[in-house]
Amino acid sequence: MHKRVVFNSRVLPYLLLAPQILVTLVFFFWPAGQAIYQSAYIPDPFGLSSQFVGFGNFEFLLSDPYYLASFKTTVIFSTLVTLVSMGAALWLAVMADRVIKGSSAYKMLLVWPYAVAPAVAGVLWLFMFNPNVGLVAWYLKVLGYNWNHVLDGEEAMGLVVVASAWRQISYNFLFFLAGLQAIPKSVIEAAAIDGASFARRFWTIVFPLLSPTTFFLLVVNVVYAFFETFGVIHTITGGGPQQATTILVYKVFSDGFVGQDLGSSAAQSVILLFVVGLLTVVQFRYIERKVHY
Amino acid sequence: MSGMVEKRGLGLWLTHVGLIVGIAIICFPIYMAFVASTVTQPEIARPPMPLIPGPHLIENYTAALTRGVNSPVLLMLFNSSVMALGITIGKIVISIISAYAIVYFRFPFRMAFFWMIFLTLMLPVEVRIVPTYEVVAGFGMLNSYTGLILPLVASATATFLFRQFFLTVPDELIEAARVDGAGPVRFFLDILLPMSRTNIAALFVILFIYGWNQYLWPLLITTKPEMNTIVMGIKQMFPSGDDIADWPVIMATTLLAMLPPVAVVIFMQGLFVKGLVESEK
After folding, report:
1. Which of A25, A166, B50, B101 has a beta carbon 3.0–4.6 Å from A16's, enabling a disulfide?
2. How far from A158 is each of A209, A286, B259, CA to CA, in Å?
3. Do the beta carbons of residue B45 and residue B212 sit within 8 Å?
4. How far is it, in rounded angstroms, from Cα A38 to Cα A262?
5. Taking a C-beta distance cutoff of 8 angstroms, is the pair A165, B25 a contact?
């Protein structure tokens, strides 16, 4: 944890830390403090003065059906993104783990979508499902299904989930493949000699041994779905139709910038700060446990 | 000894087929974007669009790069490069010197500073959107490279990574350096920095992708089209009314937007995987 031998200098360490600490104070702590401060006030419509309301903004939010709906949307969205991306990645990783030849080529072909920005992923999927020109939308129409995510909330949710999950599959794939390759082959071979089928070996041996990886990825994917999918939603649906895809982060943006409701947006920021704090604690407690393995 | 549980014959073939189908599904959106960037707009406006590339590749990419919709894509690529490199280099420099201070010196409030940097993990831009915007606007940094880069250069992850690495460096090195009369600056530049090469390279790959792919931040603080970055500029290329979007140019821009980070991942895969795994420790 600490070095035995160190340099002695009164000023140098502060100079070395100064840039990072300054940026942290000015662009992280000050705005976060402002959010907490603003969450207790309601500015008047002209922005000239503001009135102290204590927890009023929070009380209003927690009884606001739109905010509660956004909470529900976020839970559904992040559950689906996590399930789809982790499910697909595990499936691909199990297959890639079983082939010897070409495994690195497959890895190469599956890894790159991680480098695609969420907003770019959004445009790619929007193009295929665009109700007017999209290829997939057109073929669905031929099959008798009238796809229109601009009007249908559930279709909009489906599309933002798929676009968000698509990009995250590579990340999950990499970690699942590493996890699978770390499982000693002798354990699996012993089960195979005992006559256990592939499915049985997977569910009774491989999957439990993979659980540290799975749990770690669960947290990472939830954090991703909560905080990094803004670009997907902004490009594909803009939170609509009728707020069907307005997740919490998107609502902070639309209430604060588009709606100019600063008190409410600040209160939402504070609630999100608690969510991030909680997720970070979960992440670190888990990592502590991983060290003791 | 191996080979017992690996598939052979039909099973192996089915596994390969499964992987190829999975990869085909994952690559399909890119393929369609590529096809769209090689045909004309009327061909897309009358669905179904063609499934094989057309002859208009050079025409569409030239149109995108030199003209674009609101501003030339060449300019957006330049803005993105400045932002991504600024964020990447800024984060690495700031973090490596902070980690050096925390590991190699003893001074009052050392751990307080450490925890302050740690806490930024809990404060992503996404949760403090409006107040951060107000701070940047207050400094007059809207529509500037400084505004795009500076608020994003603090990095808890990079600081931890360097700290972890410095802690594994043997103490004999610093003892030897002190015997030779080298001060802290010499030791850092001549010994520690060269030893950190691989870590810096791995971080560079991860942070470059992070910087290039920024969306919300440039969306907030660049209101002038000539300051748009390519990732956030694509959305601005869609017409607001009922006009039909210029899909070939938009899809050409989309592919140009993903080219640099994807190329980095493909050509530096080893460093990329190392960076990804290390930054999650």
Report:
1. B101
2. 32, 31, 27
3. no
4. 7
5. no
The size of chain A, in residues, is 293
d(CA B142, CA B145): 9
Determine the residue type at A151: L
Q: What is the mean pLDDT of residues A120-132?
A: 93
- pTM, to two decimals: 0.90
A–B interface: beta-carbon pairs under 8 A = 294
Q: CA of A16, closest CA in chain B: separation in Å? A: 5
Burial class, B225, CB count within 10 angstroms (exposed 0-12 / middle 13-18 / buried 19+): middle
CA distance A243 to A70: 8
Residues A85 and A165 sit within 8 Å (Cβ to Cβ): yes
Q: Please name the helix (run of DSSP H) or strand (run of DSSP E) that holds residue A51, with its range, or none.
A: strand A50-52
Task: Answer yes or no: is pLDDT of A20 > 90.
Answer: yes
Q: Which two tokens stand for residue B76?
A: 């957006």
Superfamily of domain B72-278: MetI-like (1.10.3720.10)
Report all structural domains of chain A as residue ranges with CATH numbers, in order of start. 65-292 (1.10.3720.10)
- A123 to B234: CB separation less than 8 angstroms, yes or no: yes
CA angle (A86, B278, B119) in 5-degree steps? 90
ipTM value, please give it: 0.90
Domain boundaries, given as residue ranges, for chain B? 72-278
Distance CA A89, CA A178 (A): 12
Question: Could you tell me if residue A102 is left (phi over 0), alpha (psi between -120 and 50 degrees) or otherwise beta?
Answer: left
